[in-house]
From TrEMBL:
Gene Ontology molecular-function annotations: DNA-binding transcription factor activity; transcription cis-regulatory region binding
Pfam families hit by this protein: TetR_C_6, TetR_N
PROSITE patterns referenced in this protein's UniProt entry, alphabetically: HTH_TETR_1 (PS01081), HTH_TETR_2 (PS50977)
Record organism: Streptomyces ambofaciens (strain ATCC 23877 / 3486 / DSM 40053 / JCM 4204 / NBRC 12836 / NRRL B-2516)
Name by which UniProt lists this protein: Putative TetR-family transcriptional regulator
HTH tetR-type domain residues: 10-70
DNA-binding residues: 33-52
Length: 203
């Protein structure tokens, strides 16, 4: 089959991406295959090979779509910088809504594939590094405002905050009855409150 013309290729790309997203939402990364995407679109798997010549290419595109969806999601406006901004960012990560739950389920389902592939693992590592980079300035501001001890290692505190958020995500996904929306918010508030009186995390 000849590859599609450039105009057709660009016109179909959005359709392909939307089909990939629908498969992710319904089946997670475990169910993401060329056959599943082709069935979702009502086309042959051969057509999709013009877009995704390998399973890795398909998964890489799906991860990019997921990162885009995560970046474009509605976000809270914090009442102030520093720790209030950290709180807002933590709440934005958690599965507090149906959309947030679906997004987190897809992210968690991607970990197994990424851990088994060095290239995908490196890309995931870069994503989490960028997430820490977005948290760090707010902790530095909080330190400047006296919200946390002056000798706090903000790099280590940033890593702890991201680890806390993702640990809570996993628990909420697997035990939503125990970790309801109210419980998750309360745990974030406890975490933020503890930061003000934390034992300094020094370098």
């Amino acid at each position: 089959m000849a590859p599609p013309a450039r105009g057709d290729h660009e016109a179909r790309r959005k359709d392909v991406s939307e089909a990939v997203w629908r498969v992710l939402a319904g089946k997670g990364f475990g169910g993401l295959t060329l056959r599943a995407v082709a069935a979702e679109m009502g086309v042959s798997t051969g057509m999709l090979t013009h877009y995704f010549p390998s399973k890795r290419a398909l998964v890489t595109h799906a991860l990019d779509l997921l990162e885009q969806d995560t970046a474009e999601r509605p976000r809270r406006t914090p009442p102030a910088d520093g720790l209030p901004a950290v709180r807002a960012m933590l709440l934005d990560i958690l599965p507090l809504t149906s959309a947030g739950t679906a997004r987190n389920r897809i992210w968690v389902s991607s970990w197994d594939l990424s851990l088994a592939d060095e290239t995908l693992a490196a890309r995931q590592g870069d994503r989490y590094a960028r997430l820490r980079d977005r948290f760090r300035p707010h902790f530095e501001t909080g330190r400047g405002l006296g919200e946390i001890p002056p000798n706090t290692d903000t790099d280590q505190l940033t890593a702890a905050a991201v680890a806390f958020a993702h640990g809570l995500v996993v628990q909420a996904l697997f035990d939503p009855g125990r970790f309801s929306k109210d419980v998750q918010i309360a745990m974030v508030d406890d975490f933020i409150a503890q930061l003000a009186g934390l034992t300094p995390l020094t370098g």
